[in-house]
Amino acid sequence: MTTRWLTPEEQRAWRAYIAASRLLEDAIDRQLQQEGGMPHLFYSVLANLSDAPDRRLRMTDLAETLKITRSRLTYAVTRLERDGLVRRENCRWDKRSSLAVLTDEGTAVLERTAPGHVETVRALLFDRITPEQVRQLEEICTGIARGLQGEDDGAGAATEDVPWRRRSTPCQGSTAD
Amino acid sequence: MTTRWLTPEEQRAWRAYIAASRLLEDAIDRQLQQEGGMPHLFYSVLANLSDAPDRRLRMTDLAETLKITRSRLTYAVTRLERDGLVRRENCRWDKRSSLAVLTDEGTAVLERTAPGHVETVRALLFDRITPEQVRQLEEICTGIARGLQGEDDGAGAATEDVPWRRRSTPCQGSTAD
DNA sequence: TAAGTTTGTTTCAAAGTTGAACCAAGCCGT
DNA sequence: ACGGCTTGGTTCAACTTTGAAACAAACTTA
User: How far apart are CA A86 and CA B175, in angstroms?
Assistant: First the structure.
């Protein structure tokens, strides 16, 4: 079958998207690196832990919400652990699992870093688009993400609710990425 | 001044965006790595050269359109050169500049790889959003990108039109990223 | 319960990225 | 023509990411 090339509109959108996403990530990484001494992903690890019940999360669950590989997360947590911002803990119910726990120092760093980060995200993104566009963006991205993750883990049966699989309870969450 | 945290809508949009962009890039990188033996960025280098007049571009110009650092581009081109897909050439007008030139082999690889790539972009993105959303996406991304690049090079005087700075002439361009 | 499978995590080497430092070559004013 | 500034590109070490392989602890089933 002959390739369905992109229409001119699609091409423009695609190029704009590539450009925007690269520029945005770069800018955020730079800001966070300068003011927090860590790349965006590492910040997200802290932020997600901070929003989790008891400030701890299983490696796999964290990797899944962050949409990264387990291997990548292992590296990040190892580094954050070396810096004392996170600590590893063994899961009591499943000896295979390990939990990443946000330390007090990690919390402090996060609290010190969050305002600048949010400021940046605002300045670069939300201050530049209308509320209507915020909705559109969410809508678009949600759809894309759904298509991309569901592919293998099927929208099938809900995960059994064993204690160590409990999903995060509502929290403040103003810093999470 | 107290931080202006993200509203719930903004948070949802931000998270959705992060998730979608990570998943999307990963999927595209995987596809291209498998079927083309190179990451997305390297493909984009080939695609952009292919669309350039005479299939060649100054390193700086290429880096600028790709929104990456010169250093990163140097690495990519070095690798592509090793693989014979790109060749470096000295600029006749400015001895500092070097041009990246797409070789015949590079063209061949690109032509062989492009359909699969476009297919993927379609399947993961454009087949999942409405034409209206394509427009919205372009609009949003264009705005963000504008804000992010203009910051230092000011929207000021247009670059002088010396021969080796000539901007690309219209081409087919159905594969460019 | 032993064998086989799946799940959770880490390890390791190869690949790619970052940012600062460096070297030329052009540009400008004197 | 000389010094100083800017521009184009590369280099290098430190860091991060990738993906396959290795382990170990559950789970399943005969």
Answer: 44
